[in-house]
Amino acid sequence: MSTPWLVVIDPQRVFAAAESPWASPMFGSIVEPIRELAATHRTIVTRWVPAAGPERTGSWAAYFEAWPFADRPASDPLFDLVPEVADLAAEGTVDATTFGKWPALERITGPAPELLLTGVATDCCVISTALAAADAGATVRVVAQACGGSTPENHAKALDVMALYGPQITVV
């Protein structure tokens, strides 16, 4: 197998800022493990951005009704990368309007890569990316200490679910 890709999922202000309803209380503790991994791996940084109003279909309309604070343009500073890891995206970010980032990542990594997943939130965008990537044939390792959940309990639950998918997904 080739050198794994490090994927840093959504290290954005919306998930880091204490005043954000989506802030992960674990965010601060994942920055250093991510930086350590980035020092030795090819790195891709993703961003979740909201789809424009008319592009929202199905459950996304209800989603933004439930979370109106996030109903902003993708260029809003709320969706910027946090300064602590912004330099990891020197070549740009992979932006997606979905929780799972796999389809967008595959265009860079090619089919069936080896991925090291990090970032936020373990119980949303990380798990959505991991399951889709594994289903498509990627070998996925989720780096537990470099992921942050919406709560420590939800983080642990998401890791437990992903561990059920071995050997396609391994929690390390």
Automatic annotation (TrEMBL):
* UniProt entry tagged with the keyword Hydrolase: yes
Tell me the domain of life. Bacteria
Q: Which UniProt keywords apply?
A: Hydrolase
> What residues does the Isochorismatase-like domain cover?
5-166
Q: Which Pfam families match?
A: Isochorismatase (PF00857)
Answer whether the UniProt record assigns the keyword Hydrolase to this protein: yes
Q: Which InterPro entries match?
A: Isochorismatase-like_dom, Isochorismatase-like_hydrls, Isochorismatase-like_sf
Annotated PANTHER family: PEROXYUREIDOACRYLATE/UREIDOACRYLATE AMIDOHYDROLASE-RELATED
Name it. Answer: Isochorismatase family protein
